[in-house]
Amino acid sequence: MFFIMYGKMHSACLYGIEGVMIGVEIDLANGLPQTSIIGLPDSAIREAVERVRAAVKNCGYRYPQQRVTVNLAPADLRKEGSAFDLAIALGILTTSGQLMMPAAEEMLLIGELALDGSLRPVTGVLPMVEAARRSGFSKVLVPRGNEAEAALISGMAVYAAGHLRELPHPADAGTGAADQPDVVSDKQRHIPQASADHPDNEPPLPFPVTVMDSQGDSGRIHQPVMALNLEHLRYHPQHSVSSLSGTADEMLREDFGDVLGQSHVKRALTIAAAGMHNIILAGPPGTGKTMMIKRLPGILPELNDSESLEVTKIFSAAGKLTDTRSGLLRSRPFRAPHHTISAAGLIGGGSIPKPGEVSLAHRGVLFLDELPEFSRNVLEVLRQPLEDSVVTISRARAAFTFPARFLLACSMNPCSCGYLGNTGTQQRCTCSPAKIAQYRAKISGPLLDRIDMQVDVPRPSDWKGQGPALSSAEMRRDVLRAQQIQAERYSKLPISWNSELSGAALRRYAALNKESSLLLHGILESLGLSMRAHDRIIKLARTIADLEGAAAISSAHLAEAVQYRNLDRQVVAEE
Predict the structure, then answer these.
(1) Where is this region: Disordered (predicted)?
(2) Domain containing 316 — which CATH number?
């Protein structure tokens, strides 16, 4: 007699930063005992055979001595990771008649199995659960370490377990597998039992099963002896509004009030934060460039609900969520990669691409300290994300798109020794003109053209006689006021900040009067600026006007915006 049995569970995997639903199909057939996983699995998934086999046996169940085929559908999508272990294990146990899972069609299963049956957390649970909700699923079973992350998606009943033996509830199982030690007798292994209430003493299974013998007649099937009751594993999240990366109050502990002098730099940073404009600070060592940029997140507004979910999904896909008990990320990300980073580390990459630093900085700040020390090839890959606010990575099978809308903040010295233009008596620049040109050539013109604000940071000389320094709270108040104006102005558009204006929207919301237009035209001619710089100056002037509460852009706003193109003006002066 020839038996074929079929069962199906539902799991998910990551495709970029988005979750994709995967059907885990199990087929048991008579033949030589072996297990095959098909459907373009990676090595971690192929190794799931041994993890699942050991976990099933060590939890008191029996692994089928048959030909086991596991198909991950759709079969043309490449899959990676260990999140399918739980779905494969439960699929084999239900299909072989050892467990019954009535809610299998509406439950997502995610988790990695240890050899003893323990469930280990995996990365990317948040986008996977969101994909399941969009697909109509209402329940998800995850490892205990992922329960808080899964609960961030509303409308999903979250069940969490730490071990495979926890799944059958003791009240339903009696002395079943949940109560047994790792080594049990054959009688205790939940071998299918017959029923006297059905012909042939074997009622049908509650999931799709095809049973045929060699002549095409119905064969004999087994009834599971235990139904999974997961209510004892139901997770009830604790409600909290705090952020994982620190609350706004924690950010404000590093206060701009601690920075003596440099009032014009604080003004520039306030404008940058108010409109999410890219900025570069250039000056000799020890003038506070790095210190001030590190305080920039403290004056930025918190993420709104849609932005928060978007950013948290990226961190989940990248495996950067260390604690989700506090809820979604609310503070804007601040990423500061080392100058030795590779191009793939900056924009993302890999055989199945993962998000890089520009995507991890999405809706936040990407800080590149000592900009000329970065490889020129690495810096050039920033052109597309700065222009399009996305990163597109193409592979043979597919193209992956990651969001990358961030504020680029950079710092640099005026030359390799750092003291060019220093008027002090002790530290003088020792760089030759050729060396200075070589140092600055690491930053290409097209990249510099995409940076709205280029600000000189000289060594402060009058800080002793100044009054109280401008604090982060005062700067943040101005930023929030300008941000509220922009939110109301762009409420019907898919943008939030002045820096995102382009095309018809730029001409409508940042229109110049005749006097301002003539002024800008003369500046472009004298400095030789590009049309990209032309648009960025107008967007910067729009933010300056918003900070002052002005409805229209004046010549004074435009003149101040031009003053922040210091490096462009220096190039013209040198020529």
Answers:
(1) 170-205
(2) 3.40.50.300
Residue 174: CB atoms within 10 A of its CB come to: 11
Q: Where are the beta strands (DSSP E) in 255-377?
A: 279-282, 334-335, 348-349, 354-355, 365-368
Torsion over CA: 302, 307, 313, 318 (sign):
negative
Check residue 351 and report its DSSP letter. T
Contact present, 68 and 35 (Cβ < 8 Å) = yes
Residue with tokens 């191009």: 343
What span, in angstroms and rounded, lies between the C-alpha atoms of 334 and 315? 12
Same domain, 149 and 218: yes
What string of pLDDT tens digits covers the 575 residues of the chain?
444 589 999 999 998 899 999 999 999 998 899 999 999 999 999 999 999 999 999 999 999 999 999 999 999 998 999 999 999 999 999 999 899 888 888 999 999 999 999 999 999 999 999 999 999 999 999 999 999 999 999 999 999 999 999 988 654 444 444 333 333 333 333 333 333 343 344 333 333 333 333 333 333 344 445 778 888 899 887 654 444 444 444 544 688 988 888 889 999 999 999 999 999 999 988 889 999 999 999 999 999 999 999 999 999 999 898 777 778 899 999 999 999 999 999 999 877 788 999 999 999 999 999 999 999 999 999 999 999 999 998 887 778 899 999 999 999 998 888 888 776 656 778 888 888 888 888 899 899 999 999 999 988 766 555 666 789 999 999 999 999 999 999 999 999 999 999 999 999 999 999 999 999 999 888 888 888 899 999 999 999 999 999 999 999 999 999 999 877 655 444 54
Q: How far apart are CA 276 and CA 499, in angstroms?
A: 6
Q: Are 352 and 78 in contact (CB under 8 A)?
A: yes
Residues 295 and 348 in one domain: yes
Full domain range(s) for residue 360: 248-463
The first and second tokens of residue 493, run together, are: 């558009």
3-state SS string over 374-428? CCHHHHHCCHHHHHHCEEEEECCCCEEEEECCCEEEEEECCCCCCCCCCCCCCCC
